[in-house]
Design a protein that fits this description.
This protein is an alpha/beta fold. It has 8 helices and 7 strands. Strands 1-2-7-6-5-3-4 form a 7-stranded mixed sheet. Helix 5 links the parallel strand 1 and strand 2.
Length: about 240
């Protein structure tokens, strides 16, 4: 699991400076998290990457728009060292066919690392640290995410929380990825869940399933499914 560095942590609101909610969610699902941040040495990174059975890319600062060939919007706050760390972790997970779960920034990272792009700023989303807005998420029939959240029976819609100021439009989705969840927006539909088109265990969600506000208990199944996929990857190695 990647974390932000100490400089970014110092800039965050207290509730976002800690990743305890992610760690708690993973442990409840039966995982043994290995947190790593941009200050880790080359040896520490190598050890973490070698021992990981799955990769969690959590929320945090914006991705550097240069990663998708764009100039930065004035609202964008980047953490280049974290981008570098996550790109390295992503490469290892891809090469070893490990399961990957992306949350908020993590979903956006999956899309950007796969060759997609982002909407850098949505009006009305200026303060992602404020109380969350709840909205409906429409799930794609037959998607892995719909099956997971439905407990094996496909789920059509669910309620999610919203803390983000950046987004992915349908036309921004990277090759090899498909939208598994879409939410309405006044500027047009936004992709708020992604997964791999080739069957690999790769899921990104724009919402925060580690936070209980305005989100259904069915997202507990997402943590369990991710950890089970990681166990299966460990058994194959």
């Amino acid at each position: 699991m990647t974390l932000h560095g100490p400089e970014q942590a110092a800039r965050e609101e207290p509730t976002w400076a800690s990743f305890d909610s992610y760690l708690d969610a993973l442990r409840r699902a039966g995982a043994e998290p290995i947190p790593i941040d941009p200050t880790a040495s080359a040896e520490e990174r190598e050890a973490a990457f070698a021992s990981m059975d799955g990769l969690l890319l959590p929320g945090g600062a914006d991705l550097d728009p240069s990663l998708y060939g764009a100039a930065p919007h004035p609202s964008v706050q980047v953490e280049p060292d974290r981008d570098e760390l996550e790109l390295a972790a992503w490469g290892v997970a891809r090469d070893r066919a490990l399961p990957v779960l992306g949350v908020c920034r993590g979903m956006q990272a999956i899309n950007v690392f796969s060759g997609g792009s982002l909407v850098q700023h949505l009006e009305g989303h200026e303060d992602p640290t404020a109380a969350p807005a709840g909205h409906q998420l429409d799930l794609a029939p037959g998607s892995r995410l719909a099956s997971i959240l439905g407990g094996g029976e496909p789920l059509a819609t669910t309620q999610v929380n919203s803390y983000h100021h950046q987004a992915i439009r349908p036309q921004d989705v990277a090759p090899g990825l498909v939208a598994s969840g879409v939410a309405p927006h006044r500027e047009g539909p936004l992709v708020e869940a992604l997964e791999s088109s080739d069957g690999r265990w790769l899921i990104g969600v724009q919402c925060h399933p580690e936070r209980p506000e305005v989100i259904g208990p069915e997202f507990d199944r997402l943590w369990l499914a991710f950890v089970e996929a990681a166990r299966s990857a460990a058994d194959r190695s």
